[in-house]
Write the structure tokens for this entry.
Amino acid sequence: MKQIKAFFQPHRINAVTDALRNSGLCDITVGTRCQNITVSNVQRLYSSLDVIQQQYSLSLGEPVVGEIKLELFCEDEVIDELAALITQAAKPGPGWVFVSDIGSATYIV
């Protein structure tokens, strides 16, 4: 089993989730090969490349950039296809897609 973590611009979330749904690999209602899709709003510390998206976080006391963090778990044989779907749908714009091997997983009811 693999885990994907992706970070990208917030306005790209609809394109990414639509691409995952349309792929047929991530229909969580029927338990396909893609499970536990989570989406979070996160803040990344500002860099000089982020002039347009810069915000100021009062809680951190630092300039930050708002991003979406998408996480999901999937079977090994679909990892390349899912990572490519996310990468393509999150463009144009900066972002990161990380893939991790998590071994086996147990579903608890």
User: Anything to note?
Assistant: Strands lie at 2-8, 34-45, 54-57, 62-74, 95-101. The mean pLDDT is 85. The CA atoms of residues 16 and 86 lie 6 Å apart.
